[in-house]
Specification:
One of its GO terms (molecular function) is bis(5'-nucleosyl)-tetraphosphatase (asymmetrical) activity. About 20% of the residues lie in helices and about 40% in strands. By secondary structure, it is α+β, with helices and mostly antiparallel strands. The protein has one domain (about 5-155): Nucleoside Triphosphate Pyrophosphohydrolase. The two termini are about 30 Å apart.
C-alpha cells in the first residue's frame, strides 16, 4: 500500500546559523520519546484529487493552526520510507519564515487508547514544536525525513544538484 504525504519545512536564519521548525508527534505512542519522534509538518493526500503543494499548505495549517509563512517555496523533493507493504512517499518544500512556537494551535486526532479498551481519546497531532539547528534536529526527526535537512543545507549553500 503506497501512501503519499506532503509538507513544509520552515527555516530561519539567525546569528547562530540556520534553524528549522519541527513538531513532536502527539499522542500516547510518542509521549516519552524524543529521538525519531519529531516530524516536519505534513500529511497525507490523494494523488489526482489535490496537488502536493495544496496538500502541504493544508496539512501545515491543520497540524499547527497557522498558515505557511509567506515566501518562496523551495522544492526539497521526495523521501520514501516505511516497512512491509506500507510505503510512504513524502514531498517537502522549505519556506523561510519565523513562527512563534507559543502561537501553535495543533489539530487533533482520535484513537482508541489504551489499545483494545474501547475508549476513544482525542490527542494533538503535534504536542509541541521547536526551532533547532539541523544537527540537533536530525536525530529528533523520523529517520526517513532526515535527508531533507541535508537537501536544505545544500540548497542554501548553493551546492544543491540541479534537477
Amino acid at each position: 500500500m503506497d501512501v503519499y504525504s506532503a509538507g513544509v519545512l520552515v527555516f530561519r536564519r539567525g546569528e547562530a546559523g540556520i534553524e528549522v521548525l519541527i513538531g513532536h508527534m502527539g499522542g500516547p505512542l510518542f509521549a516519552k520519546k524524543d529521538e525519531s519522534a519529531w516530524s516536519i509538518p505534513k500529511g497525507e493526500y490523494e494523488i489526482g484529487v489535490e496537488s502536493a503543494e495544496v496538500a502541504a499548505a493544508r496539512e501545515f495549517t491543520e497540524e499547527l493552526g497557522l498558515p505557511v509563512p509567506d515566501g518562496r517555496w523551495i522544492a526539497l523533493g521526495d523521501v520514501q520510507y516505511g516497512s512491509g507493504s506500507r510505503r510512504k512517499t513524502v514531498t517537502v518544500w522549505a519556506v523561510e519564515g519565523d513562527l512563534d512556537p507559543d502561537a501553535i494551535v495543533p489539530g487533533t486526532f482520535t484513537m482508541e487508547w489504551p489499545p483494545r479498551s474501547g475508549r476513544l481519546g482525542e490527542f494533538p497531532e503535534i504536542d509541541r514544536v521547536g526551532w533547532f539547528a539541523p544537527a540537533i534536529a536530525e536525530p529528533k526527526l523520523v529517520k526517513g525525513q532526515r535527508p531533507l535537512l541535508q537537501r536544505l543545507a545544500e540548497h542554501l549553500a548553493g551546492t544543491a544538484p540541479t534537477p
